[in-house]
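Hi everyone, sorry if this is the wrong subforum. Our group has a chain we'd like a structural model of before ordering constructs, and none of us has done structure prediction before. Sequence below.
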Amino acid sequence: MAEHAPQRDPEAPPVELLAVRAANPGPLTLTGTNSYVLRDGAQVWVVDPGPKDPEHLAELLLTCGADARPQGVLVTHRHLDHSAGAATLARQLSARSGVEVPLWAADQAAVPGSRPLPSTLEGERGTVGHVIHLPGHTSDSVAVLVDGGRLLSGDTLLGGSSTVIVPEDGGNLTEYLQSLAILRALAMDGRIGAIHPGHGEPIDSPLDVLAVIEESIAHRQERIEQVRRARTAGVLTLDRLLRVVYGDELPEELRGPARWNLRATLDHLAEQG
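Answer:
Right subforum, don't worry. Here is the predicted structure as tokens:
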């Protein structure tokens, strides 16, 4: 975040944060994609509109409010369970309000119709949120730190599960560990008091936030050591590595994501020499 970032009016009430969960539960989406509406007076922003599900998009429109003044739609990363409905929702909000509503994404090529991300979300009462670039899950992953220390983490941190690193989408374990270090520093500095993840339940106390970040770092370091030991012992193929690290009981639907994580770990070890 910029050193002299715009500030919020100290007399303004807190930004309202409303969650709307999509009906797309699964092994990777957990209970479904969490979409978020930020409301500051009559102004609204939507973060991660989710899948292109008419019922979900209708609920988001209802949550925004009929008289709302939409300011923008932002996606935390390219994956379709977060971004597929974004362009449609932006058009719907534009049609209802009579003004063009921008769609923002870090990677415009991956999110058609999007514009480059702003560094902050600005409303009439001042700064609503800061956009933080956190590559790792994908190359274009970001989070939004909302007024009051509430982090919309996308898939960088989940509620109740560890995320996957997706090399095909630019995911990188070295960058992910760096992003976790950034979040750890912000949490220790008291700037993150709650996490509202892209999937799963919120983490709503500063101590729990720091614990979740520390656990995520420890989990990745443990996995790195497991892969390092297996390679040293002569485990060379990805199939054998999958069995050694995850065991034989891994459900079929999780084997693909586990392979992504292993590939990312091998890439990280190669980068570290």
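For your construct planning: The first strand starts at residue 16 and ends at 21. The chain has seven helices and ten strands.
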